[in-house]
Amino acid sequence: MALSFPLALDTFFAGLPVAECEFTLPATLAMSRTRGGAIKTARLAERLWTGKITLAPQLHRNALGLEAVISTLLEPGRTFLVHPLPFCYPREDPSGAGLSGASPVIHSIEAGGREFRISGLPAGYVLSAGDMLSFAYGSNPVRYALHRVVTVATANGSGLTPNIEVTPPIRPGATVGTAVTLARPFTKAILIPPPARRFVPAVASGHTLDFVQTLG
Length: 216
Description:
The chain is mainly β. The protein is about 5% helix and about 35% strand.
């Protein structure tokens, strides 16, 4: 059966033999200086998550299947889901077990998108600065937002958080009532064509995978 895109986490990304990883949100700023010495900044484009993974050495015969999937991802329009590495669960709930039975959703979004509230959490559930979360928004195409928590928030007895600041700001299109993923949050990415992999007798090594989030 042909693969469907974006590739699900467990179909591709979650099974990669990762040796090293980077997962960052680069700035997209233009800077200028006035005659009076003030520094002005302006956003050039949306900030998108980027990553680089170095794969662990593998025996050739074990690497063949992965090589085939990587090859198909280099066709136009092919995408896959990624989650942040190395940490993909809330700091105070490192296995995600604390979310069992919970159905967190967007409760409200402040003007400007810097802050929002989540409902449907267990009472007393803590989101720490640096935790990641995601949700889907829009249609045709569906987009996958991925955000990092900036301010600590604790759900009250009804499972509702105070306002939580996140980065990047929430983009237009997100709606109240949308499900929020806190355990293995994810976004959609495209693969940047990799350099050639090194081959030595019996072992394939030196393969790096660079990717960037896409809102398309």
